[in-house]
Amino acid sequence: MGAQESPPVRAGAAPVDGTALGRLLSLLVDGVSAEELEKQLTGLHAKNLIDPVTAAAARSLNARLWEAGRREGLLRVLYDTATDLTGIRDVEAVLKAIVRRTRSLIGSDIAYLSLNDYGTGESYIRVTDGAATALFRNIRMPLGEGVLGAVATGEAPAQSAHYLIDETKSHLESSDAAVAAEGVKAIMGVPLRVEGKVIGALLVADRHAHSFSSDDVALMESIGTHAAVALENARHFTEMADALARLDQAQRENLAHVRALEELSSLDQRLMETLASTDSLPSLLRLLAESMDSEVFVVSPMGEPMAGTVHGSDFGSPPALSAAEMSAARTLPVPFTVNGRAYTVMSAIAGDQHLASLIVAGHLRQDRSAVLERSALVLSAALLFERTYQDAQYRLQLELIDELLNPHPENIEALKRRASRFGLAENLQLVVRVVGVREDQRQRALAVLKRHTEGRPGITALHESHLCVIEPPARYRAAPGFTALDGSADSGQAIVDVLKRQRIEASVGSSETVTGFSRLPAAHAEAHAVLGALQALARHGEAADKAALGTTGMLLGAMESPFAAQLLAAQLGPLLDYDRRRGTQLVPTAWTFLENDASIATAANALHIHANTLRQRLERIDTLLGEGWRRGSRSLDVHVALRLWRLQSVGVGGRKP
């Protein structure tokens, strides 16, 4: 076989040296710059070691290797950027990262991102990197206007080498002013698309005029694609996180609601149990004080305490009454303040009637308000039950008091059985009291007496035109608010005091104690006569019995009230006139003298004066009334008149008015 033939050489071409070619290829593999490659090619060509065709091929190959390397580096940077962006879950952080990376990759002075507001037809700059002025950071461009508006429509990338003098672009005075203030000249941007929808634009700007290369535009489009996806992912993640947070909050609220319902259910059961208790109001207050961890009070619609001790709080004041009225109208708890302390009131309502007010110290949160509302419903039921029971008891007392004061012998056994339900018996000592109050205060006085006599033997009812009480004497009973008196002094003053505390003026006439129901009508007549005597004597707001008034008082009670003035004028007129004109004490002197059996020594001692002074006064009285006033029947007439004066001026039992 013959020797292998060498390839033909083109005419005029220099042969390529194998060693030189190997060194050239090694340079290309290691990555040589275009300048260095050109230097090497020039040297080889000068030595005639490489032909022009090979040199051109080397230049082309080196350019392609540099382009491939650049693209590889760009892809690596884009990959890193995409990785960084997709790893950020906060929308605000993603926006800032996008513009920061874009500015770095493109090498521009400014990078910024806008979002589209399709409601206003504008695209507004959302975030910037490198911008120095607030005007530029707050640009809003109508869609389709300028570079920003044009890119934001999503049609294609757009740029301007010198925006302010670029007549191919539309301009707005406000945006041009912002661009000029920032010193921007060159602008380029690409649209941001997500699932076929344009959400905004990504732009870069430089403060010197130039055109952006196609490579820059392509790089921006790649960044924009990754940025849009990252932004949408972050938005979805944020929405998901918000949804999870709302779900978690809803679960916590539901759990709290379930617990509140369980507490309300348990409270409802306990509230219902209070209705069956014998002391429903105190039980309700104890339960509420435990549940609310606060003081609780029950007051009447006028602010008077019905249950719970009120310490230094005037629930009858205008702020408290106004809050209670508002609560009754709205059927909701209402806060108010009295004497610097905060309270919440919930009115207990039955139909359109305000029964009472439930008051809790402090202003309540929502769940506690629900407890207060439930409790007010139970309070309404308890008060209605109590009222129904009291009304039934009162009807029985009303019927019983009429039968006791107007007895029928054929019904005596039934009468005894009915009276025993109220602690009254045939063999017990009883006293009858007649209570005189103004007609407009009669029903209120009855309610006060019923409340204060609850749980003790006796009956209290309206009889004819007055209030009547039949009960054992004080020594046989004890009740809160009443003073235990001995039998001889049991005049009914405790009733006067109880009503006075409620601003009700009352006069009370009491009978002597009697035994046997058959004696009650006479005892009632006696008490009525005593009350009449008190009224005739103008001793309003006092209590007395026959012993306290004496014969004079009882006689006066059987007469018309003008008789008292006539009797005093007839027997003591000159004496009364003298004392009134001179400011002397002749009438008290005469009273003391006769009360001490006309003994000068005893009377002088009682008056704390010398006996001679008493004799001088008596001589003056002799002159005014005549000497016969000290003796015989005239002495009796004067003494009766003086006793009447004493009852009128000083009061029953010598108590000063």
Structure summarized in a few sentences:
With 657 residues, the chain is of the alpha+beta class.
Can you walk me through this structure?
- The longest helix is centred in the middle third of the chain and has 63 residues.
- The protein has 21 helices and 17 strands.
- The chain has a 6-stranded antiparallel beta sheet, with helices on both faces. Strands 12, 13, 14, 15, 16 and 17 form a 6-stranded mixed beta sheet that branches. It has a 5-stranded antiparallel beta sheet with strand order 8-7-11-10-9, with helices on both faces.
- The radius of gyration is 56 Å and the shape is rod-shaped.
- The protein folds into 5 domains: 56 residues, no CATH class; 154 residues, Beta-Lactamase (2-Layer Sandwich), CATH 3.30.450; 102 residues, 2-Layer Sandwich (Beta-Lactamase), CATH 3.30.450; 152 residues; 93 residues, PucR C-terminal helix-turn-helix domain (Arc Repressor Mutant, subunit A, Orthogonal Bundle), CATH 1.10.10.2840.
- The N terminus and C terminus are likely disordered.
- Helix 9 packs antiparallel against helix 11 and helix 17 crosses helix 21.
- The chain is α+β, with helices and mostly antiparallel strands and 657 residues long.
- It starts with 17 loop residues before the first helix and ends in an 8-residue tail after the last helix.
- Strand 7 and strand 8 form a beta hairpin.
List the helices and strands and how they pair.
Elements: H1 18-30, H2 34-46, H3 52-86, H4 91-106, E1 110-117, E2 122-129, H5 134-137, E3 140-142, H6 146-152, E4 158-160, H7 173-182, E5 186-194, E6 197-206, H8 214-276, H9 280-292, E7 296-299, E8 305-307, H10 318-330, E9 334-338, E10 341-350, E11 353-361, H11 366-405, H12 412-420, E12 429-436, H13 442-452, E13 459-463, E14 466-471, H14 493-501, E15 507-510, E16 514-515, H15 520-536, E17 543-545, H16 546-557, H17 562-582, H18 586-595, H19 600-607, H20 611-625, H21 632-649
Parallel strand pairs: 15-17
Antiparallel strand pairs: 1-2, 1-6, 2-3, 4-5, 5-6, 7-8, 7-11, 9-10, 10-11, 12-14, 12-15, 12-16, 13-14
Helix pairs in contact: 1-2, 2-3, 3-4, 3-8, 4-8, 8-9, 8-11, 9-11, 15-16, 16-21, 17-21, 18-19, 18-21, 19-20
